[in-house]
Write a structure and sequence with these properties.
Blueprint lengths: L1 E7 L2 E8 L4 E5 L13 H6 L3 E5 L18 H14 L5 E6 L2 H11 L4 E7 L11 H7 L5 E2 H4 L5 H6 L3 H11 L14 E2 L20 H14 L2 H4 L5 H7 L12 E6 L3 H5 L1 H5 L1 H4 L3 E7 L6 H4 L1 H16 L1
Parallel strand pairs: 3-4, 3-5, 5-6, 6-9, 9-10
Antiparallel strand pairs: 1-2, 2-4, 7-8
Helix pairs in contact: 2-3, 7-8
Length: 318
């Protein structure tokens, strides 16, 4: 794997690449980094593709603008298109996980000239629409506070996480992993009055897919960068909703793939979005829900996911 920094209009993006052939751009979610794709990069490269995993702006070695609005969806789409150009390519397949999934989806939606196919992991595609997002989040949870609302105020979540980054990451990874999550896997998403997200962490062992050394890698990145850039993605929910008004209800017509975990709240809560795929993703090649799998699909089930991804990519190539 080769590490590089490339210039894009909004700053610089750190990426890791391996292989030659059609470009496959891999976009991580929260709280992760390019490292989340460590088990996919070699497999995609070995199948005859140029696998490139980025650190999303605000993460790792990529630029970290100070303003909250610099993390709006339009900026991430521009970053992705800029990476493709910086690599000397004209088009790419884009694949995203967690927050990377809507970033990938919107990259395909807004720049179909660049992104000719899109793979979505864990978070289903749901077209822009409905009421203002923060109004929706405020109604979720009753007396408890939904985690996205909790993340809205700058500095609030940082005050919880940054004193013990490693411990907080361990709690999130374990709490959303199929083999270590609590019986009620939804509780982690809700914060009690005056409480913290970590109050509902399981406190159990690390999931089977994560070693102590791998956790150290993630923790080291966030201890160096802080969490503000990563959390600012959540703080643009209403701004994205306004920016994307022209694409209200729009389908993504390029070839697409979805893979989620059966135990992941994202696939349960957004089951209606998955059911609407014949309309919203008319180019869908397959929608796969992996049994006994939680949120971290590409790390929990790397072999299964790699097979699905490579077969899909080969179909595009053919």
């Amino acid at each position: 794997m080769q590490h590089r920094l490339v210039d894009v209009p909004g700053g610089r993006i750190h990426l890791v690449e391996e292989g030659t052939g059609p470009l496959v751009l891999l976009v991580h979610g929260f709280p992760e980094s390019w490292y989340s794709w460590r088990r996919q990069i070699p497999a995609i490269a070995a199948a005859g593709f140029r696998a490139v995993a980025i650190d999303v702006r605000g993460y790792g070695r990529s630029s970290k603008p100070a303003a909250v609005e610099d993390y709006r969806m339009l900026a991430h789409v521009a970053d992705n298109a800029g990476v493709v150009r910086a690599l000397g390519e004209e088009t790419a397949t884009i694949v995203g996980h967690d927050w990377g999934s809507p970033i990938a989806a919107n990259s395909a939606l807004l720049r179909p000239d660049v992104f000719t196919a899109v793979g979505l992991l864990s978070v289903p595609y749901a077209p822009r629409g409905g009421p203002r997002p923060t109004e929706v989040f405020a109604r979720i949870g009753g007396d408890d506070e939904f985690y996205v609302s909790y993340f809205q105020q700058p500095g609030r979540a940082e005050a919880e996480i940054e004193p013990d980054v490693r411990g907080w990451l361990a709690g999130v990874y374990s709490g959303l992993s199929g083999d270590t999550m609590a019986a009620d896997g939804n509780r982690i998403y809700f914060i009690g009055p005056g409480g913290k997200m970590s109050d509902r962490f399981t406190g159990g062992p690390l999931p089977s897919w994560l070693t102590e050394d791998e956790l150290d890698h993630y923790a080291g990145e966030f201890e160096r960068t802080g969490l503000t850039g990563a959390l600012n993605r959540y703080r643009n929910a209403d701004r994205d909703w306004a920016d994307l008004a022209a694409w209200d209800g729009a389908p993504i017509t390029q070839p697409s793939l979805f893979v989620g975990g059966a135990l992941d709240a994202s696939t349960r809560w957004l089951s209606d979005a998955i059911a609407a795929y014949p309309t919203t993703l008319p180019g869908l090649a397959g929608s796969h829900i992996l049994p006994d799998c939680g949120h971290w699909v590409q790390q929990e089930r790397p072999d299964e996911l790699n097979e699905l991804l490579v077969n899909w990519l080969r179909g595009l190539k053919g």
